[in-house]
Amino acid sequence: MDNCRFLMENRFYVDNLVTSDDNPDEMCRLFALSRERLLRGGFELQSCNSDHVGIRGEMEKHGTLSVHGNNWEKVLGYRYCPLSDALHVTPVNCNPYACTNRQILGETAKVYDPLSVCLPVSLRGRILLSRLWKGGVAWDVLVPPEYLSLWKKLSSDFSELGTISFPRRAFSENGMGELFLFCDASPEAYGFAADTVQGCHSCLVFAKAMVAPLKRKTLPTLELMAVFLAFRCLPTILRSFGRFSPSKIHVATDSQVVLSWLVSGTIVSKNVFARNRLKDIQQISGDLGSALGFVPSFRYIPTAENPADLITRGLTMQTFRTCFQLWCYGPSWLSSGSAPWATQELACLSRRSQEIVRSSQNAAILHGEESRTVLPLEIFSTLSTRLRVTTLVITFINRLRRVEVDGEKLAAILIMKTMQHQVYAEEIEFLFDSSGKTVPGLVRALDLFIVVMD
């Protein structure tokens, strides 16, 4: 398939064609070729525009250059200014006097921002609606005065969204780079921000957030749901990148509790909902690992440097302008090529989990290989021999990884886990996933639960 055919089959959105390339000559060629092929079928390209002077000249020569008296074009719900190569959210005029749940919902829905470039501000509308529902306010009942005051301030901020400009160019399809997913949660919302990094250039490419469920969840569970949301969206994000394929994917959170869950692959509690979300994350990560040849790495990031914290906090327009650099381009070190991961003590993580985070050797843990025996235990006649040989093997493997560990301690834990899985396989399987299964007698009699030892 040639580039022109690929362009017409994959880059049309109804009757609008949007594409970009680093090579202006190639874009001129594609413009001429696509125009010629469409004319054969009776379709004539109209209202074309570009940020490149030479391409605009070709469009003007063929009479297809957009001429309407404005310096911007409508592009997939945004306003695009070719001269500055920048995007703007389409301005909205919200009614500050909306006074019912239904009216506020209608006014909030006017903000159209599919990439969520203004999410820290626009999410406040959904949070307000969630508060109204929690307060039991019906559709057409006058909302309490304190909510009307919040809506007036929010509607004013919505009306200013169109004044913020975002760079259209986030990365080059022809270059190598990395993808960073910053996750965060608050009692009212959870979400993530995705940034690409190429050389010394970083940029926000997508963000998404959800309002916290009406049925209350703990904050660590919501933090885990933010990571789960990022993983759910990750395949779609990667497909939209075209020829660009990141060499690494980093998933960062400012919750050390959730980070310990992710790197150990286990949640030491009876929180079935959180355990299921962790299993989903492992499944998606494994599928991505098979497709990409690597699995995403889990990282810790301080709250002050986490762009996703701006989402869950909810910002006024004034605060959004002051935090715009962090939101649009990520923390200052992101484009420097040396991310200071885990530079402080991770007090909530075990020693082993800290080593995994710092060394980025978490692929084996993610796929559950930590509990797999290093050597078959049946080949040894005594426990001391098993312990000594297993210690030597674990020490050797971790030296290859350049990780300092207590080999004897890990060997003892590994042997104990292996024996437990052999003797109590049914009970352990039930404790990790109890859905639709009969409770084993030993679990019922002793009220057993899982304890993770690192």
Task: Describe what you observe in this structure.
With 454 residues, this protein is of the alpha+beta class. The protein folds into four domains: 3-69, no CATH class; 71-168; 173-336, Nucleotidyltransferase, domain 5, CATH 3.30.420; 368-446, no CATH class. Helix content is 45%, strand content 13%. It has helices at residues 3-10, 24-40, 53-61, 101-108, 119-134, 145-159, 219-240, 256-264, 272-292, 308-313, 317-322, 324-329, 351-359, 363-366, 383-400, 407-423, 425-432, 441-446, and strands spanning 12-13, 16-17, 73-75, 78-81, 86-89, 165-167, 178-185, 189-198, 201-211, 248-253, 297-300. β3 (73-75) and β4 (78-81) form a beta hairpin. The longest helix is centred in the middle third of the chain and has 22 residues, at 219-240. It is globular and about 85 Å long. Residues 360-373 have low confidence and may be disordered.
